[in-house]
Amino acid sequence: MYFPVGWPKALAVPPEDIGGLHSVLCNRDRVLFAVITERSLAIWYCRPCVQIVCHCRSEESVRTLGTNQKAAWRPDSTSVAVTTSQGHILFYHLEREVLAGHGANCYNQTRGGRFPSMRSSSSMEYGEGVPSIRMTFFTSVQIIGKIECLVCVRDELLVATGNGMLQRLRWDGVVNGKTGINIASIPFSIDLQHSRASTLDTPGITFTHIEYSGLLGGFAVVLPDGRAGLVNTLAGKVENNSLQGVWAQGLENVTCVAVNNRYRLIAFGCTDGLGVVYTVDDMTGALQVSHRLELSTKDYPDACMACGPVSRLRWSPDGCVLAMAWDRGGMAVWSVYGALLMCTLGADQGLYQESLRLHLFRIKSMCWSMEGYQLWMACETLDRTEVMELPTATSELLQLQFVKSTLTVNPCATNHEHLFLQGEDKLFINTGDLVMKQQWKDANMNRPLRESITRSGDSSPQKPVRQSNILVGNKQWLVVQIPITYLGSNWPIRYAAIDRTGFCIAVAGRCGLAHYAMFTRKWKLFGNETQEKDMVVTGGLTWWRDFIICACYNLNENRDELRMYPRASNLDNAFAYSCKVPSQILLLNLFRDMLVVFCADCHIALYSIERRDANPTPTCGGPSVVESSGRSQRSSLSDPSASLTLLQEISLASYIPHAVTVISVTLTSLRTETASSKQTSSRREAESLIVNVAGRLLMLQRDRSMTSGKENGDVRKKEKILPFCAPVVLASCVENMWSSSRSSPDKVHLSEALWLGCGASGMKVWLPLFPRNDEKRHSFLSKRIMLPFQLSIYPLAVLFEDAVVLGAANDTMKYDFQDCSSPGVSDSTPTRLFPFNVVDRTTQVYLHHIVRELLRRNLGSHALQIAKSCRSLPYFSHVLELLLHQVLEEEATAHEPIPDPLLPRIVDFIREFPEFLQTIVHCARKTEIALWSYLFASAGSPKDLFEQCLQSGSLETASSYLIILQNLEPAAVSRQHATLLLDASLDKGKWELAKDLVRFLRAIGNEDPESPPRTPVNPINAPIYPLPPPPQDGPFPGFAFGSQARPVRSYSMGENLAGVRERGSAKERDRERHHSVQATSTTNKKATAAPRDIPPRVRADCGVFTGTLKHLEDTAEHFFIDVILQRHARKLLGAGRLRELGSFAAHLNFELIGWLQKERSRAARVDDFVTSLHTLHRDFQWPMPGSKIGSVGERSRSSSYDALEIGVNGMTLNDISEGQNRLRPNGMYASPSLRSSMDLLCDELRQEAMDSRQFNSNQKGDNGSTAATETSEMSASIVADDSELTLDDSMWNLANLDELEALSQELACRGPPHCETQLRYLLHVMMEAGCLEWAMLISLVLRDSMGVTRVVNTASLTDMPIDVVGRMREGLSYLELWADTECPGYKPFLLVIRGQAEVLTGIVDIQGSPQVTPIPTPESSLTSADFHALGFHGNASDTENPESEEQQSVIETELPQDGGQCALS
Questions:
Q1: 1460 SS3 class
Q2: How do beta strands 559-566 and 784-789 pair?
Q3: Which of 714, 802, 1017, 1210 lies 20 to 30 Å from 1260 when distance is taken between CA atoms?
Q4: Which helix (H) or strand (E) holds 1369?
């Protein structure tokens, strides 16, 4: 509510004021401040903070009368009384003084050259200046006995003396001896009705502190023995027989007291550092405890004991906050009902611990300034750095700046919807509480904001980017500076209001008003300064559509008025609508098109507001409405106007003690009876009045039994007139309240509720309980329920449909003064002990509090309705986590047994939502392990929850449960579940999760399988081990290559194939060297077998993680992980899912080339070329070649193959390079598309020629087999030297431009660029691994003739099995038949590579027909030594024949069913 900002200002006390500060005291208007030292009295002005006059006493006066102690102002500020240490009262008289050359001011504020005048007033002085005051010593009066305290009561001074007397003095210094009151004779009792009163028995007892309250009708007093009470003046006079005291029960250590008139509260400070606040019972007059002011031991451990007793208490002018100071240092600011807003004892403030021990910061006196924007403090710092020396005292006069919520003085409806703070010269606005909608309206108007501004003549605002139903989380404050042209003569700002859209602001100071528009960033002030000076806003202001409504006092005509100023017009009375009211207005509020006004005579008036766009002279209906006589004729009929019509008046005189105690008045649509949620409409009528009277909430509900207007049949009048029933009390200790004027059909419970801010008690919500459609309504069932819940922030706004509370909090920023300390200034001054204060916006979700309270009261059906209506919120899963976490922490750590625990109901409630599994595991991982057993006793076994995650496909959630299982179960169990999750993640393509699971399995491989670890190790969630995103501009986008994948050894495409063959043969020879398994069995106490060493050959055959985790690869578990990965790779390759295989290898660091070399005759074989080609096209989003190029195929069939081959590939590269931009058939230039296609064709032909030359150079000197020589001769007709690639101009006559254009379209018909990059990389991998069948298919998809050539050359130059070559030959034959019938677009390319197919035919014919051999299984490469290393034992035949069917069945059946564990012997 009140929040400090910046550093405190240090006011320079003149050097003649020797002896240190004693107190600071403001006058009734809080404009003048009296600063008292031991020997002087100074009068200061509030703004600017300057000293006006000072009276310094002589040495003789101080020696004779004593030093100054306390002071009191006269109500009219013409006199000041000062008490001395020797029992004297010094009276000083103040009067205005006229100085020569300065007039009545000692300081005049004038306008500078940089700020020219913008108003019609000819005067250059726009500020009143600082008045010149003459202070003279009037008289002194000696009081018998020591003066303990004094207080001003009307026109008299009441002095409590040390001899137990209350003396009454007039301000002229005359003592009324006959009216002296003996304090011991005052009777005290518990209340004013039933208890017996007794006098004080102690003779000479007195009052150490006394404070007068006219609204409470008495004095709040503190006795020397620590007791306290309230002395009531029964007859309104301070006399012996008219005083009756009431004890504050339970207090025996009181040190000070402060009275809050507006909320009827009395705050007492105690010696134990606590504060106790009492309220007065209206019925019995007894003092009842309202709340306690106590620092939390969690945030401030032993702070109160370290700071000592409470020394000072001061309420703010509006009674909304209380400032508390401790005797040993430190201060705090509390809200009216005990919410801590600011405390200097925290570690962030710098006054606690070391600073508090060395530099004792004491506040000797403090006082609030006008409107509570500053807190004046007379401070003293005792530097105790030297233990043996006496502490040195440093006094300083500080002024701490504050900003406050607009709800403190102007609780209108529009201010409740925004975070809006006001300071003395600036406004703080946070627009983060707005929910962006598709259409923005101008304060509930029917036309959009832009249209209304354009019609009014203002510039149109730029519409920001809108997004529907997105909660803006902006924490930055928009600071709007109030113009000095208005603030200079109208300081301070008293009222501020913002409209519903958050774009328009209005402020009112001492006189007049001004308004600001966000979209124009301009202020509008009164053009005529006389009109501004003639009105004073007394009851607040608010926005209605595009009108400003204010309650003001007309100084020119001496009457109270309601005025409406249009925003679009100039700020002038000529465009205003005025309405006279019978008494002063204290509060006003809006409900749709109705205005609620509360007057000083305790009456509420309801007005109807109507907008009129064409009538220049609106009139008001009702007997008490009079049109303003000062209005001039409007300049245009198009200016908007509005009128007020009085509907009804309601008297509250019987229900409230005083008009000042009314905090807010709100007209709402709430009722105690609730209909079905489907029967509620968004357009609701006014149903009740809610009045906050001194913290008590009264509700006056509309009486539907009345039949007003029935006689005359006026239906409209019947709807307007609202008869009300007698009030009922809804709640107490209420600071703020929020209600929505709009009803949401989706979230009826939240929009129909009443929200209350109750200080230290948190918040309360008056929630409707809508009956279900199938439920029978009973009269004895509750229609509404009041639910309390705690908040960690101070609420300032409620977002009803978003289940969020917005607030503000005090934050500090430390600053080191050591580098900039000036000579002679101590680092321990109070200004340097204070940090820099800032205001932060805070947000908190309240939905889980409501659900929890409803479940506690067995109202689960209503809780489920509310929760289901909020499932669309983006933070709904977080709400469920908060709900479960708070209940778990409270019940699991409770010291007493809970007979009816709430946690099982919470778990069952969360089970109704799909987020159940995620909520349970997230809550568990955010709590201590010791609480897991209590949680899973209600939620179920983690194993069952893990299996549910697998069944539902929530693999990420299942991975989180592995951490739970790792800590609650043995390592074997967690390894088994991790293996199951790894299989599922591989099947679903969750590569990131699979990578983390592999790491998890390798980390727990060597752990003891019988005992679980005590702490989690190696979390496996993706957020714990994030994988950086793949570089989009990298060489292989889509496969996440680059920094993520381990570099793979590859061969250059131009490398000698003979050398490749030699290296391949050497590798095969190395693989034939078999190392026997050395297994050593050891026996321990548990009779468990140790894992056996895996031979290097087995590790080499794995092909995964070779050379990276050698210290972990010697376990059977690690080998089993490699088997799982290889099995999934075989599954992907067997299904032809090459793209997923590439992603799998990239994310899991799988050495793809080495593994493919082993699988080229097993999983890598292709039996159906047509189906595999379709799969490649589908997976890589590669389009099939179209049928438009069928003419090329037709021409190819009609001509010879050689002619087509030469026509396409027979061009000389030099000719193409010289003539890329044009072609010469018939001397015509080619089209741009044809030129671009020829550029691509040129690059492709050049690359083919370079590769051909490289192959031919590698073939020179190679005396290979006859088959290789014949193959080279066959390919010579296709891959020739540059000298043979000649182009005859006559060849162009065979082809026409249409066919060539079709060929260029075929070259341009390709898939996405990243898919092409992936395909070419896979082509490279398949060539390196020797998987020629897949390389052939990829070349066909890319329509890469050179790729087909490389495949054929590799098949001819290496010892490739004859069955592979045969399958490629048969596959091309099937593809030609398929192209003839289903895909003619492939026919041209197949004709181009027909020569390569003939080469394959020649290879098969030379080497003979392939033998039909059974397809080997993927596990056939494993030997018996491998199975022995894994712990699988077979018979002797298994050892002799490692590739037997029985051995294969062991791998195929037993190994996957083991669930990730190795059967160790």
A1: coil
A2: unpaired
A3: 1210
A4: helix 1362-1381
Going from the C-alpha of 830 to that of each of 36, 378, 381, 400, 466, the distances in angstroms are 19, 10, 7, 11, 48
Phi, psi of 242, deg, nearest 5: -115, 15
Helix (H), strand (E) at residue 105: strand 105-107
Counts of helices then strands in the chain (DSSP H, E):
41, 61
The pair of structure tokens assigned to 63 is: 């020696």
Q: Report if pTM > 0.85.
A: no
Give CB contacts under 8 A, 24+ apart, made by 820-829: 826/383, 826/394, 828/358, 828/359, 828/381, 828/383, 828/385, 828/394, 829/10, 829/381, 829/394, 829/396
Nearest-angstrom CA–CA distance, 847 and 1436: 70
The β-bridge partners of 797 are: 806
The predicted-structure confidence for 891-927, as pLDDT tens digits, reads as follows 999 988 888 999 999 999 999 999 999 999 999 999 9
Q: Is 6 left (phi over 0), alpha (psi -120 to 50) or beta?
A: left
Please identify which residue in the block is written with the tokens 């003064």: 817
Q: What is the CA radius of gyration of the chain?
A: 46
Give me 257's structure tokens: 């007291």
Contact partners, residue 799, CB within 8 Å, separation at least 6: 433, 435, 471, 805, 806
Side chain identity, residue 781: L
At CB < 8 A and 24+ separation, what contacts does 789-792 make?
Answer: 789/762, 789/763, 789/764, 789/765, 789/846, 789/849, 789/850, 789/852, 789/853, 790/761, 790/762, 790/763, 790/849, 791/762, 791/763, 791/844, 791/846, 792/844
Q: What is the SS3 assignment for 922-971?
A: HHHHCCCHHHHHHHHHHHCCHHHHHHHHHHHCCHHHHHHHHHHHHHHCCH
**What pairing do the DSSP bridges indicate for beta strands 426-430 and 419-422?**
antiparallel
CA dihedral of 448, 449, 454, 456, whole degrees rounded to 10: 110
In terms of residues, how long is the chain?
1465
3-state secondary structure of 1457: helix
- Residues 716-735 have a mean pLDDT of 78
> Nearest 10 degrees: CA dihedral of 880, 882, 886, 889?
90
Contact (Cβ atoms closer than 8 angstroms) between residue 1329 and residue 1051 = no
- The whole-angstrom distance between residue 540's C-alpha and the CA centroid of its chain comes to 33
**Greatest distance between any 2 Cα atoms in the chain:** 144
Residue (of 40, 43, 35, 1) closest to 19 by Cα position: 40
- Token code pair at residue 1302: 């079709």
Q: In which residue are the tokens 């507001």 written?
A: 609
Backbone angles phi, psi at 1051, to 5 degrees: -110, 150
The rounded distance, in Å, linking the Cα atoms of 165 and 185 is 10
Q: In which residue are the tokens 């009151």 written?
A: 181
Query: pLDDT value at position 193?
Result: 81
**1334-1354 tens-digit pLDDT:** 999 999 999 888 999 999 998
Instruction: Count CB atoms within 10 A of the CB of residue 850.
Output: 24
**What are the tokens at 1329?**
């691994």
Rounded to the nearest 10 degrees, how much is the dihedral formed by the CA atoms of 1345, 1349, 1355, 1356?
150
